[in-house]
Predict the structure.
Amino acid sequence: MTKPETSGLTDLFASRRYFKKFETITGHLTRVAGVMEAEGDLNRDEVKILTRYIAELTFTFRALGQKYLLVGRDTGRFFGSLAIDTRHSGFPAAEELLTMASDAIQSGVHLDRIEPADELKKQMVEVIIGDRQVPTKLQFALSQRLYYEDLMRGQLFWPRNDPQIVWTGNLSDDRRSFRIHWAVYDTELNLPVIYMMEVEDTGRTALPKDPRRWPEAQAHLMAQSLGKLKLVTIAKGFDEDFDDIHPKRLRRFYAGPMYSSAFTAQSGPILDVLKAARAPEGQDWALVWTEEDLRSERVIEERAGWFSSVEREVFALDPFSGRGADLGATRMERSIVLPQRAFQALEEMNPPGFGSVRKFVVSPSGRVLRY
């Protein structure tokens, strides 16, 4: 895999436009999820899970926007700039989220050392009126306080978002069904990745209440949450490690890459489309959304010792053109979310390979339509 190329956003206005762009994009993603629910691609519970992670991404970008609010200004100390993956994902480098997670642990200490927001604002007014200067250092202190307050508030998308479990029904007295969901910020792809797994539980104690199996299952899933691993590898490993937890379906959602003629340098037809569209500021972007889906096809019995047997899943792989073994999933579907003007350019250019890609088009009013 090619190593991501990152660069820092050192220009104040470019940095603010970048964060504004992502706030707009994540807002549209919640509407995309709504369209997918209306068309039967997702159910209500799945939409809630996805929109929750999307909201956490929004809050994460908002916090980073506070952290780098005064990038490029003389704040009296060197603070760096937001590092983004310009070559591949268009998202912030994973190191940014790792640093953010470290900052969150110490956010209380930092807040104790920074004056309250009201006091900082009062001092800013005094500098503006009395000294007739721009209170840059005070503005910086306020931006950092707001950053740490966002971290204290939580509900952010962290590098690791541990598995959570939701009961979805009882199939019999000794068989329960659950949906497990978790997410990571992939450090190789520099992308947020969301997982959902539907399982049937035949353990004596319900999985969420089991003090042994549930922590073990959480640790196993987090350790296997790597973009380079195929879904069938993850599911089979889980199935073999837990005799009484049966994975029936596993999905992985990639939110990205993001393409923008203003911020990224990817090659390929999408960037050519954006350049041809010559869209106004704020509309020169496209986001790829990919779903991989693995389903259990049937169950077989496997001997476990002399007198017992266990269930093992046989997963259905994509039967077309022999891609199943390579893909490691039952199916994969790519979508692209883009503004109306960029979509018109895409239709006119009609680059190869986009015929089977679902298009979610954002109108100037913010309405999302699927093509």
